[in-house]
Predict the structure.
Amino acid sequence: MVPSHPFSRTVVLTSVAAALLATTACSGSAVSSAAGDAGAPLKIGVVVPLTGPVSETGKALQRGFELGVQKVNDSGGVGGEKVEYVVVDDAGDPATSTQLARRLIQQDRVSMLFGTITGDTAEAVSRVAEDAKVPFGTAILGDTEGCFPYSWGFGESTRQILEPSVPELIRTYGKRVAIAGSDYNYPHFYAGIAKEIVKSAGGTIVAEEYSPLGQTDWQPVVTRLKEAEPDVLLSMVVGADAVAFSRQAQQFGLITPKLGYDGAPLDSDYYPALSDLVNGRTHVVRWTDQLDDAESKKFVADYRAKYKWTQPLPEVAGNAYFGIQFFLAAAGKAGRNDGQAINTEIGRLRFDSPLGKGTHFEPANHLLQADMLETTIGPGGAYKVTRNLGPVADKVAKQGCA
Amino acid sequence: MDVLLAILSQFGLYGLLTLGVAIIFAALRVVNLAQGDLAMTGAYVAVTATTVAFGWRVLLALALCVLPLLAIERVLLRRPLADGLATMLVTWGVGMALRQGAELLFTSTSRTVAAPAGGTVELLGTPYPAYRLVSGLVAVAVIAGVLLVAYRTGWGLTMRAVADNPTMAALLGTDPRRMRSAAFVIGGMLAVLAGALYSPLLAVNPTMGFGLLVPMFFALLFSRPGALGTAVTAALLVAALAVLLRTWLTDTLADALFYIVIIGTAALRSRSHVRRLLSWSRRILSPARSS
């Protein structure tokens, strides 16, 4: 999923970003104590890519966020004041994300940060948020190995996706599982967890392939995967590569209705490009626009009306909509625009929403403990709920928060 | 057999792009940095004009690009031609405008187009996707046709004369400006054709041209300016190297080794004794004629 999984566009870019971050870290330009004016309305800084390759997902997040804030403001805001926000475009570039997050804290004096799509930009903002002691919320799917004390993820974690889906795929299609991924941190992290779950479900990994981002020809990879004769293919090939890989794997006869296929290419972001290939398949998600509770329905109707949207709503929009309401509920409990106080309340809060009853963050990894849904992809991109899996816990501790 | 077919398919794509950029370089002495983005525009025509059959969409893409290419060359490239760097930057700007335009029109979400020939064909016992084979063969046929025109017709001779010595060609009655326009349009059309023809195999999005630039530039690096045959041979070698490495090794290792081999070869070629050796070997293989 391009966009939704925390991916960096190239390994080189990640290294450059890391070098830049290291440089800024060494420069000693701490941003603490600048955020949040007492008595002033609560202000949120939104860092999203509105231009560049992941801009569509960035816009979806922004729209979900804005409707979430609007809902809170319509019900009286936080502490009797309307919530304000400032949106900035990081174009999916981590160096820009760092600069913009610093500017939002120092100049715009925001009390919380929200947004980002790619993993490298999320990490960049997480570091600034930690430095300034300002909570930062993401709505992207997937998680990373590390954890930051001021960062909170509303997207489902890798375990929350794979623990219900992998055993089901093995039961339905067979025990031989192949994994394909783009060659950067997250797909390797995803594969590590997938291998663990495949093993405990009685399956075997028969092939594992990674390819650098930007690949146009998938014949060698598809040939090797086909030779392994898998029953199930888990793919964390992301971005435009997910589309080219899936399409070429289909042309070479690897992806057929007899093969269990799951992973990033089944996310709603790719539906317009891969509809014929994913229709009828099941996919585990946290939120879908097909949910029939009143709150989700109202959100979907508002989104479609306000943004003249006719396609399926991206999941990231739903995560952002309910995620920002969670954050603002915590801000209301904190009672003041102090980042540290709000952060403490985020860690304590139990929040009811269509994502689940009493949703809360696990202190050991800052991942949202919420319900998961098994959906079946139907014509027109309708991710219909076929099974409510209930709360799927992910309590595995991570360095940085444990 | 699998490997040969993979090389054919990749060579078709890289060959069309490299031959196009080599023709433009020969006539204008500028590297067209918008070549990948022109391929992207061709792919978008194939994706969007779905009311007509795929073959017509490819022809439509070619027909639609002629006037814009002519306008780009006449309006944007002719004036700064005296400064090669400025012209190259103009082509970069053209590419950026095309990318932004595509993002505004179609968003950054990837699209695909159904292959006009589905299913597989059996080749010496190897099942192979039918359209992949068709696209490779069409691309190779076009490349061969363009080379035939360049080396076996009067027009090709004139173009090569302009590429070799524009002043002398002008003194002998050839209008270099007209030839440059023609070269830019033909070079650009080859990129548009590559994008449209290969669109069923690729993810079509505004930035897809970036991924196509690297192998094309590598092939251009190993060709001699004005010698279109060497550009095509270099494209074949680059395609073969990429496919063979990815067949024998994992993709990650193959990718790293691909860059090492390319950069190593380029560095080796730049050494004076290797250059002299290559120059002598060329004279031995094709000795100068006395007449």
Observations:
- Residues 55-74 of chain A form the longest helix (20 residues).
- Chain A touches chain B at residues 2, 51-56, 183, 209-212, 214-217, 219-221, 223, 239-244, 247-248, 251-253, 269-270, 272-274 (CB under 8 Å).
- Chain A has two domains: 11-156+292-370, 158-285.
- Residues 158-285 of chain A form a domain with the Rossmann fold fold (CATH 3.40.50.2300).
